[in-house]
Design goal:
The chain folds into two domains: 274 residues, Alpha-Beta Barrel (TIM Barrel), CATH 3.20.20; 94 residues, no CATH class. 45% of the residues lie in helices and 14% in strands. It has 15 helices and twelve strands. Helix 7 links the parallel strand 6 and strand 7. Bound molecules: 3-methyl-2-oxobutanoic acid and zinc ion.
Length: 387
């Protein structure tokens, strides 16, 4: 039996914190509605106390979406929780995401506090948020570096206080996948009331391991993943929604399913990238410009014989129109012949050899040979072959 994994999207909160990515409320509503169509379970719409704009966005997104839970972030403070509860009043289902640091480095240098005090404040925040009548998710900030026994104690205490979800963030992107997985497993083995809450994983990408850590967390029992479109987020970003969703699609043997409709992924990636002025790197998994582009001769030949030779998913699955063959000086005759045939030119034998030689000259000069260059080469072939 497949396990349903909840997708908690934080593009509009952790993603939007990135310098230059700030959105107007109207833009956030457009993205929130698209996230609903994509099939996410939770939309973290903002940090209501942080600014009047964020407050308004949480209010308007709460009105605009029907299916997903709308979530507002808070610190473990009364004023934050009061403001979040106010911002979420129109949500069909609202969630307050409150929390506090759990690692000694945060406890000592950020909160100038003690383990006992942060534990007490965390428990109080959960009880207070719960008293507002919302679902409550607790985040144990910097859990990736926290003392494990203390993290387990904190998790148990906040579940006891009523937390519906406990988020175990690798805030600094420090963990290695097998060790992050072990952390999650340790909680399942040592927190007595763990079955009363959902364990959530929220990973940052400082070492490029956010997706790997997230998957490892799920394999070890987490049932909610916190992600963003295109992996945008603080510093090196958060776990990418598209990567996690497609890992579960491609590796069906893992038996994890989400509610994500993969065919909507590419369109939303483009929308978020455009609105946030955040270009997607060309080699980004799933949504980068080169994710389904084949450029070396050996790969192009293999791909043209049978797409599965070099593609583990069909681009149409994620809403990309088609794979592409990029013609460069590394391309072979098979790719050239194929592209020419798409342009209506059939060349074989000597003609194909001649056009290929000329193609290489053009390719050495221009990095990529485009269809217009091929049309010129094709038009010259009768002359070149005659001479
Ligand atoms: O990375 C983090 O710890 C966070 C929390 C506020 C959930 O974003
Ligand atoms: Zn984060």
């Amino acid at each position: 039996m497949s396990q349903r994994i909840k997708v908690f999207d934080t593009t509009l909160r952790d993603g939007e914190q990135v310098p230059g990515c700030q959105l107007k409320t109207e833009e956030k509503i457009i993205i929130a509605k698209e996230l609903e169509l994509l099939g996410v379970d939770v939309i973290e719409a903002g940090f209501p106390i942080s600014s009047p704009g964020d407050f308004l966005s949480v209010v308007e997104i709460s009105k605009a979406v029907k299916e997903p839970i709308v979530c507002g972030l808070t610190r473990a403070k009364k004023e934050d929780i009061d403001v979040a509860a106010e911002a979420l009043r129109y949500a069909k289902r609202g969630r307050i995401h409150t929390g506090i640091g759990s690692s000694d480095v945060h406890i000592k240098h950020k909160f100038k506090s003690t383990r006992d005090q942060v534990l007490e404040q965390g428990v109080w925040a959960v009880q207070y948020a719960k008293s507002k009548g919302f679902e409550v998710e607790f985040y144990a900030e910097d859990a990736g570096r926290a003392d494990l026994a203390f993290l387990a104690m904190m998790t148990q205490a906040v579940i006891e206080a009523g937390a519906d979800v406990v988020n175990i963030p690798d805030t600094t992107g420090y963990c290695l996948p097998h060790l992050y997985g072990k952390r999650i497993n340790y909680l399942f083995e040592n927190v007595k009331n763990i079955s009363k809450a959902t364990i959530s994983v929220h990973c940052h990408n400082d070492l490029g391991l956010a997706t790997a850590n997230t998957v490892s967390g799920v394999i070890n029992g987490a049932r909610q993943v916190e992600v963003t479109i295109n992996g945008i987020g603080e510093r090196a970003g958060n776990t990418s929604l598209e990567e996690v969703a497609m890992i579960f699609e491609v590796h069906k043997d893992l038996n994890f399913v989400t509610g994500i409709k993969p065919e909507k992924i590419y369109g939303l990636s483009k929308l978020v990238s455009g609105m946030m002025h955040m270009p997607v790197q060309a080699n980004k998994a799933i949504v980068g410009a080169n994710a389904f582009a084949h450029s070396s001769g050996i790969h192009q030949d293999g791909f043209l014989k049978h797409a599965e030779n070099y593609e583990i998913m069909n681009p149409a699955q994620v809403g990309v129109l088609s794979s592409s063959i990029v013609l460069t000086a590394r391309s072979g005759r098979a790719a050239l012949k194929h592209r020419l045939s798409l342009l209506g030119h059939q060349f074989e034998g000597e003609e194909l050899n001649t056009i290929y030689e000329n193609f290489l000259l053009v390719a050495d000069e221009k990095k990529e040979v485009r269809d217009e260059d091929l049309q010129v080469l094709a038009a010259n072939i009768p002359v070149l072959v005659k001479n």
